[in-house]
Q: What sequence folds into this?
């Protein structure tokens, strides 16, 4: 889990506008008006986007690979399912540690930068073998149900915790401190990232018409 958390936090903070140089140049702490409603809505939006992107795909469409080194739609969905629970466990680990509200001023990355960074498809990161899809998924509906069930657990957890508690739990990432709220944003953003990847697969000129 530690290796996965490190890999994905590198992905999050290295992508887009979030990088070590920007963090070092930012002289003020990050502030955000985003509350729990924004976070909960983002989970719903990312699930609905994935559902819209994948429902009704045939087996040929599901398993089509644009190239040998690129993922199929099935592999993208398998990867999402393989990582979401582990990412949730990683975020909970931060919440289980003592709160550190005195470190709030150390958080330089804004929520919007977190979302923009993880969904930036111009940055590529190679997944480890244990979280790389095997292209064996055959039932989109079952996969979406599994993801929805995972989300119910996450949303239930978030519903029971105060936003201030999320903001007061700071963890160190490869490029600087982030709070637990942002760790939970990352989980939903990770789904959004791979939904965009699915759209790239579907846009390939050789993608099966049916």
A:
């Amino acid at each position: 889990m530690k290796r996965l958390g490190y890999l994905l936090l590198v992905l999050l903070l290295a992508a887009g506008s979030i990088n070590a140089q920007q963090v070092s140049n930012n002289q003020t702490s990050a502030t955000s008006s985003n509350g729990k409603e924004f976070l909960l809505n983002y989970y719903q939006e990312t699930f609905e986007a994935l559902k819209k992107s994948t429902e009704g795909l045939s087996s040929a469409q599901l398993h089509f690979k644009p190239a040998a080194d690129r993922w199929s739609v099935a592999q993208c969905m398998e990867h999402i399912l393989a990582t979401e629970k582990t990412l949730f466990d990683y975020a909970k680990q931060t919440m289980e540690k003592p709160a550190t509200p005195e470190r709030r001023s150390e958080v330089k990355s804004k929520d919007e930068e977190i979302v923009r960074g993880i969904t930036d498809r111009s940055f590529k990161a190679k997944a480890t073998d244990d979280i790389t899809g095997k292209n064996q998924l055959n039932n989109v509906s079952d996969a979406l149900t599994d993801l929805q069930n995972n989300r119910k657990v996450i949303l239930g957890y978030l519903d029971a915790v105060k936003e201030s508690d999320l903001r007061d739990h700071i963890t160190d990432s490869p490029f600087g401190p982030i709070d637990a709220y942002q760790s939970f944003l990352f989980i939903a953003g990770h789904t959004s990232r791979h939904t965009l990847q699915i759209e790239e697969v579907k846009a390939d000129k050789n993608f099966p018409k049916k």
Remarks:
- The two ends are 38 Å apart (CA to CA).
- The first helix runs from residue 2 to 14.
- The chain has nine helices and two strands.
- Confidence is low (pLDDT under 50) at residues 13-31.
